[in-house]
Design brief:
This protein is α+β, with helices and mostly antiparallel strands and 435 residues long. It has 4 domains: 89 residues, Sulfate adenylyltransferase, CATH 3.10.400; 89 residues; 93 residues, SWIB/MDM2 domain (MDM2), CATH 1.10.245; 84 residues, 2-Layer Sandwich (Translation Initiation Factor Eif1). It is flat, with a radius of gyration of 27 Å. This is Eukaryotic translation initiation factor 2D-like.
């Protein structure tokens, strides 16, 4: 009665070269679109995913979001916008050079929405910009392209149901001339770059950001993963535990020294301390002056005897230096099960060797690290490869190994990647049967 659901043959992130190729295809297909128009749809700092289907159709979109473009034959010549999501139609109204013949910027207006004047647009943009500067734009992320500022920060702050035309207002340059932000023009991309934010500016200080309620939504975009398969998929997150070196910094800003933090969270902590102690160099905003507490946190015990301690550090190096003084851990999650592993993760080892003449066996160990049940996997592989499998304890070590009859080393590695989500970098393969 109903057609079967269509499943993609593969899902993957675009490499840098593929991103450039996609942008060239869009530029050729929509010659009126500027670089900033395309960047608004496919932000440079956001992962872009592609779903490839059996009929050669390729579907592109921001990873975890809605599909934005589809390519009929995967060659890049017949590529079109999907136009099926509210967010996409809003962006189209901002970059209407993709869909209008005269190249002029139209303002998308709903049935119950009245046209906004230039003054209304400026006022609303100012409010959205200040909201973004208070809530999502961090100093450590600067400089950032204007297109990224717009799509990732300003646009999400606009009121629901309102569509704005960015081309009707020189809002970024205007705020720069007023001293709120510092902006420069990229002469190659012809795009404004946000360099810094003056958080002592009267407009910034007097603005009170709104508390927005986060809506819980279920995303069904690219890539789509079935519920049964998602239970098998793995998530590995690198986190960091505070050490005695950095504990004084955390204590100073009132942060828990017993928690685990992501690299970005740890970076936010040290920049909060810098802001609290007013350590940014006045003559060069990109430099942080090291006070005794911060200097000890970053370099105590790491500087050779007789060597002078640094007195300042560049902002771009501060976060990494702070994180390096913490203890690395990994949080491994599969379905509802989660475990914290100290230090680096041990790899899964897949090895093929000969037994009794020309017979081959393939051994698989290290499964427990990634929350894979050896017994369940052995039963699964027995059916998949139509061969006998056994599970045995590793001699002299903790854990078990699965032994599969036959030389299935390549297929087994592929199975662990596709069905259990084990990253390729965590799989070590050794074929002892090859001479």
């Amino acid at each position: 009665m109903f057609k079967k659901a269509v499943e993609a043959r593969s899902h993957q992130r675009l490499s840098g070269a593929d991103r450039k190729k996609l942008k060239r295809s869009l530029k050729n297909k929509f010659p009126r679109a500027s670089e900033s128009d395309i960047d608004s749809l496919l932000p440079p700092k956001v992962e872009i995913a592609v779903a490839k289907f059996q009929n050669r159709v390729h579907v592109y979109g921001v990873e975890g979001g809605f599909p934005i473009f589809f390519d009929i034959d995967g060659r890049g010549t017949d590529i079109f916008p999907t136009g099926i999501t509210p967010s996409f139609s809003n962006i189209l109204s901002l970059t209407c050079s993709l869909v209008t013949d005269d190249g002029s910027a139209d303002q998308s207006i709903g049935e119950d929405q009245h046209p906004l004047s230039t003054e209304d647009v400026d006022t609303l943009l100012e409010k959205c910009l200040l909201q973004a500067l208070h809530t999502t734009v961090k100093d450590k992320d600067l400089p950032t392209p204007g297109s990224t500022l717009w799509s990732n920060h300003v646009l999400p702050c606009r009121p629901s149901g309102i569509t704005l035309d960015i081309k009707k207002s020189k809002w970024l340059q205007a705020k720069s001339s007023m001293g709120l932000i510092t902006v420069k023009e990229d002469k190659y991309k012809k795009e404004s770059i946000l360099l810094s934010v003056n958080r002592k500016h009267p407009d910034y200080s007097s603005f009170k950001p709104e508390k927005r309620q986060v809506e819980k939504t279920v995303q069904t975009g690219v890539p789509a993963v079935s519920e049964s398969r998602s239970l098998k998929m793995l998530e590995v997150v690198e986190v960091y535990k505070p050490s005695v070196h950095v504990n004084p910094i955390l204590a100073s800003v009132g942060t828990d020294t017993g928690k685990l933090y992501s690299a970005s969270e740890a970076t936010d902590i040290v920049f909060t301390y810098v802001e609290k102690e007013n350590l940014v160099k006045q003559t060069d905003k990109s430099i942080v002056v090291l006070d005794p507490i911060l200097c000890d946190a970053l370099f105590k015990g790491a500087i050779k005897k007789g060597t002078m301690y640094p007195t300042e550090i560049h902002k771009r190096d501060l976060g990494a230096a702070f994180v390096n003084r913490m203890q690395a851990h990994h949080v491994v999650t599969r379905g509802s099960e989660s475990v914290v592993r100290k230090g680096g993760l041990k790899t899964i080892q897949i090895m093929t060797e000969r037994r009794q003449g020309n017979k081959k066996v393939t051994k698989l160990s290290g499964l427990e690290t990634f929350l894979v049940d050896p017994e369940a996997l052995a039963s699964e592989l027995q059916k998949k490869f139509a061969c006998s499998t056994t599970v045995a304890e590793l001699p002299g070590k903790k854990g078990h190994e699965v032994v599969v009859q036959g030389g299935v080393i390549d297929d087994l590695a592929k199975h662990m990647i596709e069905q259990y989500g084990i990253p390729k970098r965590f799989i070590e393969v050794l074929d002892k049967t090859r001479r």
